[in-house]
Amino acid sequence: MNLRIISGEFGGRTIAAPDGSKTHPMSERIRNALFNILGDKVRDAQVLDAFAGTGALGIEAVSRGAKHATFIERDGKAHKTIVANITTLGIEDKVKVVKAPVASWVTTYDGELFDVIFVDPPYHDMQFSTVTKLMGLLKPGALMVLSQPGRDECPTKPGVVVVDNRSYGDATLVFFRLEDA
User: Fold this and answer.
1) What domain range is 149 assigned to?
2) What pLDDT was estimated at residue 126?
């Protein structure tokens, strides 16, 4: 299966998605809506694509001018697909790909904080404790977008507020912002 990059430097190009049911790539319609909502917030941003799957969210962000994207994916086939997509587009200097479970990566990460974090965990295992830990990697005023099934409960963390909530069929995007200190 192939996915289309919607806009930016690589708009119209396609990237590969791993076969099988381990990843659930966000539909082009939802990705388009997501990036329309974010607007210029991805330009020059440090982006984290957690539970990266195909890497489509981070790659779309780089295509739209993000300074750097970090991809975290534990599945071997999905990880190889992300690396292949990055190589095909020639953006190795703007990305870092980590093969690890997000839950273990987030507890050991000690690098730069992020401007935008995309969180798209497996719908059958939302890992809210890990999602809450990811909120701790946001810069003040930064955004985290969680994709989840339906309008289920949301994780919460003091100082992080829900600023938007949009439903698209069986998927809901929840936008969180770290309040300025």
Assistant:
1) 2-19+27-178
2) 74
